[in-house]
Amino acid sequence: MKKKKISFVAADIIEAQEILKTLEKRYGNVVPENADVIVALGGDGFMLRMLHQYKARKIPIYGMNCGSVGFLMNTRNVTNLDRRISQAEPVEVHPLVMETVLADGSIKTSHAINEVAILRQTQQAAKIRVVVDDIERIPELICDGVLVATPAGSTAYNLSAHGPILPLNANVLCLTPISAFRPRRWRGAIVPCQAKIRFEILESTKRPVCASADDFEVRQIVSVSIEQAQTVSMTLLFDPEHNLESRILKEQFTL
To answer: What is the 3-state secondary structure of 115-150?
Structure first.
């Protein structure tokens, strides 16, 4: 079997940089443009940045946890890395595409692997009209914000906002309010992954909001359109004994 060319990339933290030196001595290192696989050393935030940075290359990324939570990462272990990568289980994730219209009429677009979040910018609650597949579902949602999460991202911000955890192969998205004041009884929705969601910001000058797609943020928005990017996919690699699907299932029974 041909030996895979590995590119090691590390977050700017002491733990990641120390492991990077060890791995480079043991396995060598090639630039990402010439690699068969990227090994990302850091936490979940660093993994998300690497997925965004190299999505055009369609190269699989194997994460090694040097951060805190490490939900998207494998355990930190420098031994038998070639074997671990060759036996790793691939997970294809389709990101969300967020298109925002700003107050000046300009349009900003970005992808989100975990979630798109709409958040108030001032002390005043946001007022948001919720439209799904061109049908108005909520005329006025008064809240701190609202988010749309993928199955892979349902255990992140979505879970903190009391949204449901989704199985990886569920083919649905979470639509979860953040500190909703009106309507009081609305706790969110689960919509098909093909759904087209639009948030229209009411009183956008008086009650400004921002929109973020993972770590990409846009301010002073008047509307946000979100849908799954069906033609775009990214590949994460997981050790078989600790794959992403089993983690998501386990998270549902964590007390």
So the answer is: EEEEEECCCCCEEEEEEECCEEEEEEEEECEEEEEC
Among the residues of the chain, which ranges form H helices? 14-27, 44-53, 81-87, 157-160, 244-251
129, 133, 134, 135 alpha-carbon torsion, rounded to 10°:
-70
Q: How far apart, in whole angstroms, are the C-alpha atoms of residue 82 and residue 151?
A: 29
Tell me which H or E stretch contains 8. Answer: strand 6-10
Mean pLDDT for 10-18 is 94
The mean pLDDT value for 205-224 works out to 95
- Whole-structure pTM value: 0.87
Domains, the chain, with CATH or none: 6-93+233-251 (3.40.50.10330), 96-228 (2.60.200.30)
- Number of other residues whose CB lies within 10 A of the CB of residue 227: 18
More confident residue, 254 or 66: 66
| Catalytic position from the list 44, 133, 144, 214 | 44
Is 44 a residue of the active site?
yes
